[in-house]
Amino acid sequence: MFTFHHVNVERxxxxxxxxxxxxxxxxxxxxxxxxxxxxKSTLLRLCNRLDVPTTGTVTYRGxxxxxxxxxELRRRVGMVFQTPTPFAGTVRDNLVVAAPAGDDDRFAAAxxxxxxxxxxxxxxxxxxxxxxxxxxxLARTLVADCEALLLDEPTSALDAAPxxxxxxxxxxxxxxxxxxxxxxxxxxxLQRIADGVLALVDGALVHAGTPEGLRDVAELxxxxxxxxxx
Length: 230
Ligand SMILES: Nc1ncnc2c1ncn2[C@@H]1O[C@H](COP(=O)(O)OP(=O)(O)OP(=O)(O)O)[C@@H](O)[C@H]1O
Hints:
Blueprint: E1 2-11, E2 14-24, E3 29-33, H1 40-46, E4 55-60, E5 63-64, H2 70-76, E6 77-80, H3 91-98, H4 104-113, H5 130-142, E7 148-152, H6 160-175, E8 180-183, H7 187-193, E9 196-201, E10 204-209, H8 221-225
Parallel strand pairs: 3-8, 3-9, 6-7, 7-8
Antiparallel strand pairs: 1-2, 1-4, 4-5, 9-10
Helix pairs in contact: 3-5, 4-5
The chain binds adenosine-5'-triphosphate (ATP).
The site of adenosine-5'-triphosphate has 12 residues, from helix 1.
Domain ABC transporter: 2-227
GO molecular function, one term: ATP binding
Keywords: ATP-binding, Nucleotide-binding, Translocase, Transport
């Protein structure tokens, strides 16, 4: 789905990503893991042009992202952020922003797909719980019929129960054909959701492969022995 060709990102004279070459498959959940400051969010943000490489290229389904219209790309590749970001207004108002031509049937289907009661359409988005708000943001992304999802620590503000509910929902969506690139620093979460892994340390890719293969990556020893929480 995404291919990184010798991607370097420099910010303020510091290397944030160094010569990253990797492929993200167009199915399942690919998890990006690594310690704080490793460059995980930057890697994700390159995929919908919230960030651009200093050198190197990123392609989406074979097309160089530099040649794609960012707004069109973001309609095709949805993003869910760390903390829920509902707009002011009702849940319906939030969904209309993503799908201006949508009707209540389509909105109800998106809420159902995000494991929310369609009766929430008329609720003020500000009155949702954290878990509901994060799933409403997922519904807002889904209602736009995006082809793929980028998720940047989407459950870090959630308690265990809503976190696990969100994970189950995502695993189910991925199994039904929405590929995902998901940033986490939590090893236990990776073990619950990952089909494939990209591991970063200090801006360098140290593992691209299976979750099981992480155990053999010497650069991750300290991080993994902390449970990946640092
Ligand atoms: N625009 C910028 N200007 C300067 N430094 C930046 C910029 N963007 C990122 N960085 C630096 O690049 C490094 C990687 O940042 P990034 O947010 O990608 O890491 P991360 O692995 O997602 O971290 P965390 O797990 O803490 O969210 C950090 O040291 C960060 O301070």
